[in-house]
Amino acid sequence: MAKSWPDDLVKYIDGFPDGHRVRLRRDRMLRSAEQTGKAWEEIAKVAKEAETLPHVFLLLPDGPTSQPYDAIYGNRTRTPDQEVKYYAEAVTAIDKILPLFNRVGYEHLMQDIPQGCNEADPSVWETLRKFDDRATREGLLQLKTILQGTKPHAKRLSKDKNNEQAARATYTILVADLNRYLTTPKHTALAVLARANCPDVELTPEAVKKAWSTHCPTR
Prior knowledge:
By secondary structure, the protein is mostly helical. It has 2 domains: about 120 residues, no CATH class; about 80 residues.
């Protein structure tokens, strides 16, 4: 039955040992071999790169059981509270740096760079020849505005990570976000693959399309 799937994807999966979750997922999805074969064919036509099919296969969510912070926006080493603190510290750091770009601060900075041939670092002077202090200051001000506009806690669809409705919404978003690996969205094909992976969860192409247009940051 796997012959109906793209050869590259079949070879990739065959590289895992028997009983591995990757093979178990394949076996589960091959119960709908004809439908998934057509879906993979559609995905392959618009894949951005050779690794797209394995990526999509591995990243298909295994059902709406929760809505973890990491799920929609990728793995994080910081919690939402830690992100808030991190961004606030970055704003403080920018505030400390900005005085270097007023007239007096910049003059002092230039005066403190060694002028003599024996003390001067050639890489510093090479950098200075290309350095645009006004553009840098403007960039820092823009970055400060962006940092102040962040809302890490907004990534959760509900304060309760086990909220059933929010978990279902997260599941749909995760499926829709797989479109980022494609040159053209394929909502129907992704819905077919998701249903084959999680037969007990009904998911329509319309729901995937809506999630893609309203929630996915990479669209």
